[in-house]
Amino acid sequence: MKTSPFGVIYDGGKDETTSRFAAAFDVLRRLNGEIKDQNEKVESQPPPPPDQAAFQLRASRKWLQLHATDLGHQNFFVRALPPDGDSQWCANRDPEGELLPLLNQYCFRCHSSLRFNVFDRPAVVQRKNRVLDYLEPPLTVKFHMPQDRVLKPDVKDKLKTLLASLP
Known about the structure:
By secondary structure, this protein is mostly helical. It has 5 helices and no strands. The protein folds into 2 domains: about 10-65, no CATH class; about 85-165, no CATH class.
């Protein structure tokens, strides 16, 4: 994005300190608020405890919490979804300090809304063997991951090693 003539929010321009950017960001806030409201309406009744809600609802609530007043990009570990405590991603715990940034870079594009969210640590732990299986096939096989790019062998090996060592 740094070399692009456009900003991260196209209508906001490149300078994230302007009122133009703030106005464009407010549109995202409203959209995420509507997404949260819609997700709340489809939750089971009575609603589950906040840490047991569907990941789509937890993700929209987390985004709104992080961006209530802040327009900036947030650290990977701050973006981790509830529940908190030992089941949440931790930057100082191996292999998580290295793994979550890679999952964000290579998997978040799809797995922020499809099947699970990479910022939901228990969901990643639960699916780690399937994720490892999907990293194996060549591009010619239908079910390979990631589908939108070719990983360099060293990156794929690093992801596999870190995922395999995730408790």
